[in-house]
Design a protein that fits this description.
about 90 residues, mainly alpha, flat
Length: about 90
Amino acid sequence: MAKASVKKDNIIVRPSHYTRHKIEPVTFVMENNLPFHTGNIVKYAVRAGHKIYDGMDAVQSEITDLEKVRRYAEMRINQLKGKSVL
């Protein structure tokens, strides 16, 4: 397999910002049959501070992932309160 293909596979199948721990977030979420919103909260919380977004520095990227955690929690709270999820 060419280097470009290996790199692309690693980004898609085993991105480094998810493989730092003994259990990847996707495995934890699926093995525990977590709901969508909880799975996303876990995913973004675990990778916060470890994925750098294009055009952002490390601090901005971490804040972005933590804001995503907050957003999914807010959406679930709205759902529980009978409000518009979005």
